[in-house]
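Writing this down once: the sequence line spells out the residues, with the fold written below as integer tokens. This is how one looks:
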Amino acid sequence: MTEPRLRFPRPPREREIFCNRTLNLRSIRAIGYDMDYTLVHYRVEEWERRAYEYMQRKLLDQGWPVSELGFDPQLMIRGLILDLQLGNVLKANRFGYVKRAYHGTRQMDFEEQREMYARTVVDLAEDRWVFLNTLFTLSEGCMYAQLVDLLDRRQLPEVVGYDGLYRRVRTSIDEAHVEGQLKAEILAQPDRFVEPDPEAALALLDQKRAGKKLLLITNSDWGYSDALMRHAFDAHLPRGLTWRDLFDLVIVSARKPDFFESRSPVFEVVEESGLLKPVRALRDGGVFLGGNASLVATSTCPRTCCAGGRRSCCASWRPRWRRWRRFGRNRISWRGSWRKRKSWSSITASFASSSSGSGGSTDRSRARAPPRSRSRLETCGPGSPRWTSGSRRWPRRRAPPATRAGDF
């Protein structure tokens, strides 16, 4: 049986996109991109080797014997986990169980691994574990594993634990980034560190012409981002277009992942030199520094009520628990304490008795009790919107036992 002829030639396997669910792009109005290792791909071995050398230089200045060490690109991959309590490098499955372990650069045998991690489940929320989830962490993971070997041989000048060893490595690489020497070297020789990708610019241009709103949100500063994007995109765009014409909104120095949880202020970059101006809302076509995800969601919302930048006008971006409180107020009310809650029938009876006992007449047209609320059994019973007649299944929340007749 012959295979059907494809209308378009199939791209190489390394250019294909794999997903585990169906996504209809017609329902997507805005698409956000990161810059590093998303729009701009670095030569991993070259970039991480230079980052390792800058980190090694920082440790040498502190008197640590790391001059004989070297970056090993085959030692680390993205997705490994550092155990700061025992100084191990782990590979865990999706359930948190350790499948393979290294102590420093030495692979542990099965018996040693089982004795150490048989009853341990990796929880990345704990401070004990460090997840190497980006390509930028390969150099620090390699340095940490090599320093564990030196610590076990007692060749380090200071008495530090495995967790203190990682903090020293993390501080050294952060200082290298803050000083800007590594970024300055990349901008001086971009062809050495950046892989060219002509198809990336054309893909963004197609999305732009399809009516999508494109966002660029990066942790890099404005000077570095502008120079690197000009090098990676401007040469592959039609004449007269620059990379700024592709994006409706550009945010630099976003400080992700805090960008998605904090309420940091936002500043607009008003000049190419980096002059900043404080603002309260985002506008299309601008370049901004800092900010938070709520401002981005408000600026990309198509409703006219969000034009003023009010955070509470549209709840489409709000977390699930906030939307629950905003739109499910009645649902929360009947999920309260079962024994302490009174039904509307008992409240109506007490209202009528108090009115007649005080000598006043009860005028039903003027003094009307609130409408009777459904109890949990009535809300969950047949005939309610939450009752599934086809499958005859009860809802997940079971009704509490009846305590008094007034509850019904």
Q: What stands out?
A: DSSP finds 13 helices and 13 strands in the chain. The CA atoms of residues 282 and 296 lie 7 Å apart. Confidence is low (pLDDT under 50) at residues 303-370, 373-408.
